[in-house]
Specification:
With 193 residues, the protein is of the alpha/beta class. Helices cover 47% and strands 11% of the residues. A 5-stranded parallel β-sheet has the order 5-2-1-6-7. It has a two-stranded antiparallel sheet with strand order 3-4.
Length: 193
């Protein structure tokens, strides 16, 4: 069983694709989704970096973001793998998120694996999506941010998950990531989700 944490802030889960979308946009490798998705993802991660969101994630997020966000960055429009400075930039961004942030990391344990198996069958999901959702439910997250519209549709078509709301990231206010703000710039406050 996973540990339960106290506190009043609602926990949320940020799917790997949200992190990867921002990495691709910030490293100039391209954006795979709709143009507005990058801005929306940027806003969610700005809230995460500023501490406004209480984020819980499976260690699979860590693995997927490093795997797809660093080693396999690819501009699908040019079919070229990113190399050199782009990979170094992605690695730096990922380290800033995952090595020095207050994410509550959750190992994939037997209970989550069994729940994921049931979810995969019920909603026709791949194993990675099922593990992410099972982890979010096990950790009592209320919101699951994802760009995966097919995942959202599958869950809705299957009757939904009463305890978990799947949402596309929503842009609110000025789009600024705290680590990009210089001393002379002033950040506008972000609305909590």
């Amino acid at each position: 069983m996973s540990r339960r944490r106290g506190g009043v802030a609602q926990r949320c889960y940020i799917d790997s694709c949200v992190f990867i979308e921002v990495i691709k946009g910030r490293t100039g490798v391209g954006i795979d989704h709709e143009e507005e998705d990058y801005d929306r993802c940027l806003q969610v991660l700005a809230q995460f970096e500023s501490g406004t969101l209480n984020v819980t994630a499976s260690t699979m997020v860590y693995v997927e973001v490093f795997g797809k966000g660093e080693a396999k960055l690819q501009d699908k429009r040019k079919s070229q793998l990113a190399t050199g400075k782009t990979q170094a930039a992605a690695s730096e961004i990922i380290d800033s998120w995952f090595k020095s942030s207050p994410i509550s990391w959750v190992e994939v344990h037997q209970d989550i694996a069994e729940d994921a198996r049931e979810m995969a069958k019920k909603f026709c999901l791949d194993s990675q999506d099922a593990v992410h959702l099972a982890t979010a439910i096990d950790e009592e997250c209320k919101v699951f941010y994802t760009l995966d519209r097919r995942l959202i549709r599958k869950i809705e078509d299957g009757g939904g998950i009463p305890s978990l709301q799947l949402l596309l990231p929503v842009a609110m206010g000025q789009l600024t990531i705290p680590s990009q703000v210089s001393a002379s710039e002033k950040m506008s406050p972000l609305e909590p989700s």
